[in-house]
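Task card 7
Instruction: Convert sequence to structure tokens.
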Amino acid sequence: MHTALVIDDNRHTADGLCQLLSLLDLDAHPAYGPRAAIMALSEQVPDIVFMDINMPGVDGFEVMAYLRREPRLLKVPVVVVTADDQKTTAQRAQREGAIATIIKPASFEALEDALRAAKLL
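Output:
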């Protein structure tokens, strides 16, 4: 079974996304914000990361930069899940290394597409 880390400062959103991912046979765990995400990533390397961008303090782009600096996390696929539907956000996410951008609320189909892009489905 593949593992996923869901990073979002909104507990309800993170938990809901974990539940959806479990329906796709992923062992999904939430990290409620960037600090919790960094701690979780220091303990375990997930097969994929689903990340919000707009979080207080350290935003999702900064967490993505951390992922890309750490050799053991470098190849972990990142999917941005955000309420920000501006094209520039999706373009920046792609430049920063995200394999997909999903606009909240995440649909089951969009999650399946992202997992296919990561070759996990």
